[in-house]
Specification:
alpha/beta; six-stranded mixed β-sheet; four-stranded antiparallel β-sheet; about 30% helix; binds adenosine-5'-diphosphate; binds magnesium ion
Length: about 280
């Protein structure tokens, strides 16, 4: 048979793909056959009720947790076969809990983001320092550059960790509740930053709780419910009254918001008898 040779790599615009991933913790299925394709130039929101498996899925995507079933591929290569240092050149993960107990300044923490790019045991150079300082500015964290991270507020620390991820210059950026500890202005700043990164070609996945932020700032929303994907697609198709009732057990109306030109979810009441009651 003639024709093009079979393709083993991933399409260029799908750098990270999780295929039918399953995770079992303490004998309990936490993720069941979840398939997620992370796309270049797109901000994808990962939403779902507490305990749905969002952080677990993000750890699997980041190569930090090995799934019991399925696999995760970066540019077609299983992440489990990549050394962490190699993976970290392409992929950055900002965890939900950013508490650190060592006495580093913010700038020193952000400079750690450069380490995957350095030759082994090589010191950081002026270019790394320039990138770290730019990352601190881009994240809006430059005011605390010289302050020890142990003395920062939760929100300030969150911005420093976002700066560290930016300094890594990843093609895939995974963030677990990146705006959870931030004030209104910093929330908007970070969400706009994610959009700008996507515009410049980064593939972004962010766990968000605020469905209206997901609707406004994300191209795609993946809705996790009881360890499976209930919906995955553009906000108008995923954040429906029906899906939200099933996943959260909340009655809502979804309106078009003329100010943000995106769907707006208005919670009405708890819907007894549906939602995640595990
Ligand atoms: P989410 O981020 O959506 O709130 P998680 O992914 O953190 O949810 O957790 C999914 C489920 O797995 C939860 O029910 C949680 O209690 C459970 N889980 C996660 N990690 C562990 C662990 N180390 N030990 C026991 N249960 C865990
Ligand atoms: Mg979580």
């Amino acid at each position: 048979m003639t024709g093009p040779p079979p393709r083993h790599g991933a399409p260029d615009d799908l750098p990270l793909v999780a295929e039918e991933v399953s995770v079992v913790i303490d004998g309990r299925p936490v993720l069941v056959d979840v398939t997620v394709r992370v796309r270049t130039g797109e901000v994808m929101a990962l939403v779902g009720p507490n305990g749905a498996g969002k952080s677990t899925l993000l750890s699997v995507l980041a190569g930090l947790r090995r799934p019991e079933g399925g696999d995760v591929r970066l540019d077609g290569t299983p992440t489990r076969s990549l050394r962490p240092r190699v993976l970290a050149r392409s992929l950055a993960h900002v965890p939900q809990d950013t508490a650190l107990d060592f006495e580093f300044t913010s700038r020193q923490v952000v400079l750690l983001g450069r380490h995957p790019h350095l030759r082994r045991f090589a010191p950081v150079g002026p270019e790394d320092e320039r990138i770290a300082d730019q990352a601190l500015r881009d994240a809006g964290a430059d005011r605390w550059s010289d302050q020890e991270v142990t003395t920062l507020s939760g929100g300030e620390r969150q911005l420093v960790h976002i700066a560290k991820a930016l300094a890594q210059e990843p093609r895939v950026l995974l963030l677990d509740e990146p705006v959870a500890a931030l004030d209104l202005r910093h929330q908007l700043h970070v969400l706009r930053l994610l959009r700008e990164l996507a515009r410049r070609g980064t593939a972004v996945v962010a766990v968000l709780h605020d469905l209206n932020q997901a609707a406004r700032f994300c191209d795609r929303v993946a809705l996790l419910h009881q360890g499976g994907l209930l919906a995955d697609g553009p906000p108008e198709l995923t954040l429906t009254r029906e899906n939200i009732a099933v996943a959260y057990g909340v009655r809502v109306v979804v309106r078009h918001d003329p100010d943000t030109r995106s769907p707006r979810v208005v919670p009405l009441d708890i819907d007894e008898g549906s939602g995640d009651t595990r």
